[in-house]
Design brief:
Blueprint (H helix, E strand, L loop, with lengths): L1 E17 L5 E20 L4 E5 L10 H13 L5 E6 L10 H16 L6 H8 L6 H6 L2 E6 L3 E4 L7 E6 L6 H6 L10 H10 L2 H7 L5 H7 L1 H12 L3 E4 L6 E5 L2 H11 L5 E8 L6
Parallel strand pairs: 3-4
Antiparallel strand pairs: 1-2, 2-4, 2-5, 2-10, 5-6, 7-9, 7-10, 8-9
Helix pairs in contact: 1-2, 6-7, 8-9
């Protein structure tokens, strides 16, 4: 079974408070994008085999390994599988590539072994692996709250042109949260939802915000420079997740092409992409 494992962006991200369990309460709009890793799942007689074009992923900290172990524990069954992963997305980039790989592994095993686990059950169990798992299992245009487990489907924002720029290094989400200054100013998600629904790009440019940017930009001023330049090209720029990926929404393909031509020679991981639902992953 071959499948696509899409990345995601955050169409705004608010960090509201820190919880007693160490997690943070957030509010965010998440959207899958047309960039993806490639995965293949092969049913075998016994054991677990993992092959990837990135050697450092061949360890038990990999979320593909953890997803397989989680489902074996949850079902009480052995689920022998061979998994091939071609990693295209940059790692530790704020695109949830690793989480997407793990989420797709859960769905693939559920389908291959006809386990009959509902999407709701998978989402609940997957929280043991990470807060972004429920969204990466569901996809689409989603408002997420809590630690990311409370999901609300909102008006579709698929098919929108994007430029993705990654500077080629990763950023630790854990360290970003540890150094984050949480303020009392909340992002206006009602205004963002209305602007997404009506494709009002002027309003989007006013209301889209990522509360992690100020903390990340202190240590990585190059990301701030990328954001400013993307805006000069006519895009609506934002950092995705905890970085280091920057993206910009474009409603003019001429401006998109100009921005792409500028960045493609500066950064290896520069892509033109679109927002997608992700329903064709598996």
């Amino acid at each position: 079974m071959r499948a696509k494992s899409y990345g995601k962006i955050n169409l705004s991200l608010d960090v509201i408070s820190k919880r007693r369990d160490g997690y943070h309460n957030i509010k965010t709009i998440m959207q899958k994008i047309s960039l993806y890793d490639e995965m293949e799942f092969i049913k075998i007689k016994r054991g677990f085999k993992f092959l990837s074009n990135v050697d450092e992923l061949d360890n038990e900290d990999n979320l593909v390994y953890k997803a397989h172990n989680l489902l074996e524990t949850y079902t009480g069954k052995k689920l022998p599988i061979e998994i091939h992963l071609k990693k295209n997305l940059p790692m530790a980039s704020g695109l949830a590539g690793g989480t997407g790989n793990g989420a797709l592994t859960l769905r693939a095993l559920n389908k291959i072994y006809r386990l009959g686990i509902s999407l709701e059950e998978l989402c609940k169990e997957s929280l043991k692996l990470g807060a972004d798992f429920p969204y990466m299992l569901v996809g689409g245009t989603i408002l997420a709250e809590g630690i990311g487990e409370k999901l609300e489907v909102i008006d579709d924002f698929c098919g929108q042109d994007l430029l993705i720029v990654n500077p080629g290094y990763g950023i630790s989400t854990k360290k970003v949260y540890e150094n984050l200054d949480i303020d009392n100013d909340r992002i206006d998600f009602d205004a963002i939802r209305e602007a997404l629904k009506t494709k009002n790009f002027f309003k989007l440019s006013k209301f889209l915000q990522n509360k992690m940017e100020s903390s990340v930009f202190k240590n990585h001023p190059d990301l701030s420079d990328i954001k400013k330049k993307l805006k000069e090209f006519g895009g609506i720029p934002l950092m995705s997740g905890s970085g280091a990926t920057m993206f910009a929404i474009f409603d003019d393909r001429v401006n998109l092409n100009k921005a792409y031509d500028y960045y493609k020679d500066l950064y290896k991981y520069t892509y033109m992409a679109k927002t997608v639902g992700g329903e064709d992953e598996l």
